[in-house]
Amino acid sequence: MSSNNRNNPGDSLLFGAASGTTFKLLSIERVCESPPEIRGERTFLVPDSLVLVIAEASEGRLVLDGRYYPLKAGSVFLGRPGQLLELGLHEERGLGVYVLRLQAADLSIFPAQGDICLAPSAVAIGLCEKMAGCLKDGSMAERLRGEAAFYELLSLIARQREHETAVALECARRELENHFTEEITVKRLADTAGLSRYHFMRLFKEKFGKGVIDYLTDLRLAQAKKWMEAEPGLSLRQISHRVGYKNESYFSSIFKKKTGFSAAVYIQNRQMKVAAYSWVNIGQLLALQVIPFAAPTDHYWTDEYRQKFAFEVKIVLSHQYDYNREALRQARPDRIVAIEGLIEEEERARLRDIAPSLFLPMELSWREHLRLTAEFLDMPAAAERWLEHYERRLEEFGRKSSFSGDRVLAFGVCRHKLLVWGRRAGSLLYDDLKWRPALRIDEFPSWTKEVDANRLSEFEADRLLLHVGEDAVSQQTWRLLERSAEWNGLKAVQNGSVQPLKNCSWFDCPWNEYNAYRFGQWLDEML
């Protein structure tokens, strides 16, 4: 990490806003870092005061207490004292974030959770630059200019928070959260917001990340899970009625669709508190229908786990030994499941002192991981049932497949990189489905290999399974490749044998999803 413009003026800025609220700027720091590798070091901040994090980079991430937020130029985050902030910046070298330490008596103008995005972003970033430069100078005139810039930044944040549409949507959301157990319609909520039904539904999804009906369903299921935990003697019929479903069967089907488990299995398996120490361990547990009690949820390639299991994951883990150890010591889990090669031997010993722990060797197959995890949790039969069901689905897919001896290559466009999957990453394709791998696959590392466009023809692939990242950089890289002579000269392209790899956002990091749950889910999607 590199940082500059760290300013700690002898007398902090202090002024009263029009409302009489007092704000004090304690310091401002510009933080930059080079793009980390997937397994690289992370930058951690633990503020001793309120902090505003204002992004000038349009790529990267901020993980706040284990919760993942993508960075956008002009986005503003509020961090509180003692919260763990993890910063990761991508490829915009020289760009980073501004970190403002401050005191404020009234936090209503700041985002309560997540971020707000100031537009135009250049104005907010320019004000941060002005503050940093003025405070560094130290003269009275420059300090006054810095105060004015700070005041203007606060006014921008306040103006954004007071934006009429945002306020209207927030009112509708509160109406939904206060009355979700009742018969509540989209029209009623749109009327509350003063918007047309269509406009309201579109803006609601943009603002809150999910549609109105999905939001309502999630509220009801979250409350149902609370009742299951707080009053285990309640019947499913009683719970479904309490949360707004008159039909118990419909409630049960929605519950299974959303969680992946029947309500009865969910209740039974929640009795054991299991910690999944790393990302990959989560899927090993989910295949056994066990939702981890503690786990990292800052997956940068998907928000699936955050959306589906936010209630169940009571302890959000990070990627820092001390933080995780203290969190687990206080939570007292019944079991800990981890990957041996990702944790140092001394730390593994400390975790064993907290709870019985299983450390899975990474070189083992995902099937062996599943069986070892099931044995550790005294659930060996559950693993065998899952594997039997998986084998039946493989047979079903084999009857439908028309690849018949074609050489297959899994190929991905991930930002500026062109990647192919090695044998281990593509084990579902090459080992389970018995598809014939393209030439040279076994020469590569087991996970991924970066290749040049002019070397793609060397694989002699009859079929290409193509993944293109959804981010702007990947899309631009793909547009350039798609028009190139190298791409259009490939046999698979000329024969129209290029198929999309759907729902494969983890293409560039297959080791993070090398587990039974993800492989089973992926096979279902292919079927």
Written overview of the protein:
With 527 residues, the protein is α/β, with parallel strands linked by helices. Helices cover 42% and strands 20% of the residues. The protein has 20 helices and 22 strands. The strands form five sheets. Strands 1, 2, 3, 5, 8, 10 and 11 form a seven-stranded antiparallel beta sheet that branches. Strands 17, 18, 19, 20, 21 and 22 form a six-stranded mixed beta sheet that branches. Strand 2 and strand 3 (22-32) form a beta hairpin. Helix 1 (121-137) runs antiparallel to helix 2, helix 3 packs antiparallel against helix 4 and helix 12 packs parallel to helix 13. The longest helix has 22 residues, at 140-161. It is globular. The two termini are 45 Å apart. 34% of the residues are buried. Mean pLDDT is 87; it is low at 1-5, 14-19 and 35-40.
Put the structure in a nutshell.
Helices cover 42% and strands 20% of the residues. It is an alpha/beta fold.
Radius of gyration, in Å, reads 26 Å
What structural class do you assign from the helix and strand content?
Answer: alpha/beta
Distance from first to last alpha carbon: 45 Å
* Tally of strands: 22
| Averaged pLDDT | 87
The low-confidence parts are: 1-5, 14-19, 35-40
The helix count comes to 20
Characterize the main sheet. Answer: 7 strands, antiparallel
- Tell me the overall shape: globular
Helical fraction equals 40-55%
Strand % is 15-25%
